[in-house]
Each structure stands twice: as C-alpha cells, then as structure tokens.
Design brief:
By secondary structure, the chain is of the alpha+beta class. 26% of the residues lie in helices and 35% in strands. The chain has a 6-stranded antiparallel β-sheet. A 3-stranded antiparallel β-sheet has the order 1-2-7, with no helix packed on it. The termini are far apart. 24% of the residues are buried.
Length: 218
Amino acid sequence: MRLPFPLAGFVLALVLALRPVPAGAVEIHDVRILRLGEYTGVALRTTGVLSPRVRSSLERGMPATVRLSVELWRVRPGWFDHFVRAEHAEIRVARDAWSDEFQLERVGGPSVTLLDLDEAELEIERPTRVRLVPVSTMESGVRYYVIARIEVKPLTAEDIEEVEGWLSGEARRAGKPGPGSIARLPSYMVGVLANLSGLGDEVATFRSGSFTREDLGR
C-alpha cells in the first residue's frame, strides 16, 4: 500500500523524531493466589514498567498506556481449558506541557499529578490485589490457574489521533494542508510504524501453578 505524500512525510518524521533508545524489560513478580474475603484473589507486583525507552518517549511529550489483565482459567484434562473470568486495569501517563509535571490517570478513577517519572513509576508499581470470582462459584476438586499480563503501550491509535488533531489544527492556522491520518490505517500497519519508531509494546506474561478451591482455605 502506497501512502499519500503528506501522510508518508508525517510517518517519516515520526519515525526519525522518535528513534529507539535501549529498552529495559517489564516484569511481573511475587504473584500469589489468595482468598480476599469471599473472593478468589491475586496479589502481584510489577517492575520495569517505565523502561528507559518509555521514559524517553514520555519526556518527549508522547503519552503511554499501561494495561494489566488477570485471567482465571479452569483446567479440563484432554480438552481445551475453560476461560472463567478476566479483570482489567488501565493507567495512562502523560506529560503536562505547561508545568512539566506528569498526569497519571486510572481508567474509572481520579487523575493524579506527579512531579517526575520516578514518582509515576512508584505509583504504577505499587503491589496490586485483584478480585476474580466468588470462591463459592468454583467447583470442588477442580484445578484452576491464573494468567497475568502487563502491556506498556508507548504509542496507541488513540494517541496518534490526539497528535494528528493537534498537528492538523496547527496546519490550518498556518494555512497549510494537514499530515493525513495514520490512525485510519489498518491496525497492523500502526503496529509496524510503532515498532519502526522504537515505540512498540513491551509485554510480560505470568502463568501460575494450578490450585483448587480447597487450597484457598489453607
């Protein structure tokens, strides 16, 4: 697929301006399956969420999104395992261009203003507890396991739309054509551009050992 010249120029500028820097690795640690009141719960901790690469992106003014998902699966020997439930949490971090502070916003929660990225990282990496399903709904003697996944997305289609909106506004004020829309490209192409610019996702996944409902009471 050939991109229109204004759009291709914007893509090239994005790739060159956001060259990759050495990246760390996001990880999931200290995962425990436990009982939280009447619920089956998971406690975990993450590290390396704001790697040098992500920090560099945030410092340049690009937002980043951190998505955590925790899934409960039931073991079915001799057949595909059965998905039971998933819980998701999402945090968005962005730099305030006026104050140079950072805004951390949890989806469904309040926004927090932080002085620097070290404070933001401490807030994101706080130990987390997630409630999944009532213990009473789990089958006796059946084995279950948990899959936890964290994704750090320094560039999403929504972020691109925000940047394009700002650039288009600036172009209109200057009486020039806008850059076109990358966000309208197929999602796989957006992913390719993100990886070329050094802003592809960083992902970590953890799978627990199996456990039963009875184990939660011990």
